[in-house]
Specification:
The chain is of the alpha+beta class. The protein has a single domain, classed as Lambda Exonuclease, Chain A (Alpha-Beta Complex), CATH 3.90.320. Helix content is 44%, strand content 26%. It is built from 7 helices and 12 strands. The strands form 3 sheets. The protein has a 7-stranded mixed sheet with strand order 1-2-6-9-10-11-12, sandwiched between helices. A hairpin with a 2-residue loop joins strand 3 and strand 4.
Length: 257
């Protein structure tokens, strides 16, 4: 059996984030847990690229493929930004956003799984506020079934990765990704990045379990607590999957040279 129905049970602990306790309890009782046999994995770096050791294969990560196939235009935009703010400042901005995002992810993951995470640092306090905003807008009364939180996914022989969440969201099976950002985004900016990342995870899940994922969605919270979400559904998401497979083909042509 690939999965079975279960219901989250409440097991309160003394450590609790600033997410409203009553809302938390109501949300946990509403979310069903659908268990899949996801593989374990280890991650490593080979020649500067992230590799997953999964299902007895060593596969490039989704982000590795995306980075290796960036367009010259996108690379120029990034290079111009680094020159404008300075290399040291650019690295600091990147590292702070990554650290803040990691804390926010742990808090959101704990909210869904009933494994609460508390961080009282200055960065952690902001991350808690961002996670609270995301949970109120994206999770509460919208996520009815959790099919996996931070599961490892792999498309046999091609690529692997770790998605934030898959489940029944707004009544549809959806691949979900949480993002933190310094500034608001526009959907067209995400065409060659977040859109393809979601498509990659959906294809890997489909390859592993034979269940189609028709929808992908990004939940984004800025450090100023602005919430955004961007959805790809139906034909738009099918096109994203096709575009991702072209990226995979481009990647393997490059590394085979």
């Amino acid at each position: 059996m690939l999965w079975k129905n279960d219901v989250y049970f409440i097991n309160h602990s003394n450590n609790f984030s600033n997410i409203n306790r009553n809302r938390y309890k109501q949300t946990q009782l509403m979310i069903k847990k659908i268990e899949f046999d996801y593989p374990t994995s280890t991650r490593g770096m080979v020649n500067g690229e992230r590799i997953y050791d999964i299902n007895q294969e060593k596969l490039p990560s989704v982000t590795t493929i995306l980075q290796a196939t960036q367009s010259p235009e996108k690379l120029k935009i990034l290079d111009d930004w680094k020159k404008r703010v300075g290399a040291i400042q650019a690295d600091q901005i990147r590292d702070e956003a990554a650290a803040r995002g990691s804390v926010m992810h742990r808090i959101v993951e704990g909210y869904i799984k009933d494994e609460r995470h508390l961080d009282l640092t200055v960065m952690g306090t902001l991350a808690h506020k961002m996670a609270d905003k995301l949970c109120k807008r994206a999770i509460d009364e919208r996520l009815t079934e959790s099919w996996g939180v931070e599961p490892f996914l792999a498309y046999k022989g091609l690529f692997a990765g770790q998605t934030d969440l898959i489940g029944i969201h707004d009544g549809k099976l959806t691949m979900c990704d949480h993002k933190n950002s310094n500034k608001p985004k526009r959907k067209e900016w995400l065409h060659d990045s977040y859109r393809l990342q979601l498509a990659a995870y959906a294809l890997a899940f489909e390859d592993m379990f034979g269940i189609a994922v028709p929808r992908g969605i990004n939940f984004i919270v800025t450090k100023d607590l602005l919430y955004q979400e961007f959805e790809w559904n139906g034909q738009e998401f099918r096109q994203a999957k096709y575009d991702w497979l072209k990226k995979v083909d481009e990647y393997y042509k490059k590394v085979s040279k």
